[in-house]
From TrEMBL:
Pfam families: DUF2147. Keywords: Signal. Residues 24-139 form the DUF2147 domain. It comes from Tenacibaculum pelagium. Gene3D superfamilies: 2.40.128.520. InterPro entries: DUF2147. The keyword Signal applies. Residues 1-19 form the signal peptide. The keyword Signal applies. This is DUF2147 domain-containing protein.
Length: 141
């Protein structure tokens, strides 16, 4: 009985800890239809946050290339591509890195912050954060 209790307690604690972090799998939703168009995994490497596209829901776009990207990303597959790079923790947000919009191939400065345990706010901007766009990702269940 104790073994079951401790196992359940461990599961509850690990679930609640995971729900309070930016790391994990997130759903990006189309702004017009609110349907999930991709799944993004946010992960930590050497103390910085990164994210890559791990799933594209549209079967016709799964082999899509980033033809509007420049540099090393030009004509590389969007699936598996890192779109968020080098964010450092700063209080309750992660900032100082960049985000790529594979639809237009442009990179923006950005910061991300948990809006709540299942909603991640992503703010991409040029110059100052006031001149940008906010998107939300939703934790994949």
């Amino acid at each position: 009985m104790k073994k079951i209790f401790y196992t359940l307690l461990l599961i509850i604690i690990s679930t609640s800890i995971n729900a309070q972090t930016i790391f994990g799998k997130w759903e990006n939703r189309d702004e017009e239809t609110n349907k999930v168009d991709s799944v993004i995994e946010v992960y930590q490497k050497e103390g910085k946050a990164y994210a890559k596209i791990i799933e594209i829901t549209d079967k016709n776009r799964q082999d899509a290339l980033c033809d509007k990207c420049s540099g090393k990303r030009k004509n590389n597959p969007i699936l598996g591509m890192n779109i968020l790079t080098g964010l450092k923790k700063d209080g309750d947000e992660w900032s100082g890195g960049k985000i790529l919009d594979p639809k237009n191939g442009k990179e923006y400065k950005c910061y991300i912050k948990l809006d709540n345990s299942n909603k991640l706010k992503i703010r991409g901007y040029i110059g100052f954060a006031a001149f940008g766009r906010t998107a939300y990702w939703y934790r994949k269940k």
